[in-house]
């Protein structure tokens, strides 16, 4: 019988970890400390954006914000914002800092744009409230968030613009919406050490709450009043869905997946398009293997996996990092590197997540561990094993659905050093992300980003 004890895997991971020590040992050990005030107010600020007129909707949409999450996405945005503020203002003239960016303390000595925009702050509406509130505007139904309190003074003092701070909140709202949906899709039972939203409420409520968070995030995005940022963030929402779809229907490993749907173990045929509406598959769809030799198949599977990983995880990190740079007015080289930083860090983050799925226990992870194989998902560790042993292709193709498949796959991963190879892959992206940060001026916030990047690689949960 194959051993499924996590101990041998844990040992393998520990051995792999010894290969990778954080390279930039910093004098501080907590990147949170640099933006601690913003981070500690994050949940409260978000709660101001998500109040609704329905008490149960309020409970389900705030549910995941009540428990301590990693908050890595807003942390990246805030630390980048602070790092970008170290660039001299005369080099940050790509966009003019407008009146919405300037608090009473006027931290920026440059001249704010005189452009007159509707509303006075990122909390004000663009459309008349009578339209946004719909019927019965002032009584019980109160579908829009109330303006927040005046932005705190420390925002002005530490260089993080109000729009960047709002960006951090938006990113966490979008991420939380995806978690509510993801837990329904994965039939998860726990998240952040508590019953997941689908269990604590219902599938229907979890989905609706996710949609509601997206709606509120979209309002907040519009109020940033920056078309480039609106485009970036709206695209991430589409990317997240595309990534999840790629995970649901792996058309590289299983070409028949294009025409069938697995509905809780029952196979259904996908309806044929009527032809009335032209469907367009974009050119960024990955190439399917043309030859069916082993190497081509494995390469196509890795390409598919990385593309899915970008869409599912790295898109939000990269595009929000880019948005933080756009809002700072930095030059295009800086903006491009911020984007690449978020992309490389996001890929590293998800690859490590996929590795931890093999090694963590539920209690350490705060969510179901060792779930991917049971869900039929072929992530990097098993793909590396497949590269060595072509016969693993059968297991992958049948999504580890037969008795003993999951245990067999774990054994193959162990024997082929799949976890160590996965960690090496994550390490490459980690190093690229560190390189991208070098375009930013040296500062505590840049060091904090370097520390954070290294800890993504060495994290245990
Ligand atoms: C977690 O993956 C899931 C994501 C990072 C993205 C999920 C995206 C969707 C459900 C699409 C719907 C999107 C929107 C915009 C609402 P995981 O299952 O690998 O991680 P986990 O172990 O934390 O569950
Ligand atoms: Mg999941």
UniProtKB/TrEMBL annotation:
<dbReference type="GO" id="GO:0006744">
    <property type="term" value="P:ubiquinone biosynthetic process"/>
</dbReference>
<dbReference type="GO" id="GO:0008299">
    <property type="term" value="P:isoprenoid biosynthetic process"/>
</dbReference>
<dbReference type="GO" id="GO:1990234">
    <property type="term" value="C:transferase complex"/>
</dbReference>
<keyword id="KW-0414">Isoprene biosynthesis</keyword>
<keyword id="KW-0479">Metal-binding</keyword>
<keyword id="KW-0460">Magnesium</keyword>
<dbReference type="Pfam" id="PF00348">
    <property type="entry name" value="polyprenyl_synt"/>
</dbReference>
<dbReference type="InterPro" id="IPR000092">
    <property type="entry name" value="Polyprenyl_synt"/>
</dbReference>
<dbReference type="GO" id="GO:0046872">
    <property type="term" value="F:metal ion binding"/>
</dbReference>
<dbReference type="InterPro" id="IPR033749">
    <property type="entry name" value="Polyprenyl_synt_CS"/>
</dbReference>
<keyword id="KW-0808">Transferase</keyword>
<feature type="region of interest" description="Disordered">
    <location>
        <begin position="257"/>
        <end position="280"/>
    </location>
</feature>
<comment type="similarity">
    <text>Belongs to the FPP/GGPP synthase family.</text>
</comment>
<dbReference type="GO" id="GO:0004659">
    <property type="term" value="F:prenyltransferase activity"/>
</dbReference>
<dbReference type="InterPro" id="IPR008949">
    <property type="entry name" value="Isoprenoid_synthase_dom_sf"/>
</dbReference>
<protein>
    <submittedName>
        <fullName>Hexaprenyl pyrophosphate synthetase mitochondrial</fullName>
    </submittedName>
</protein>
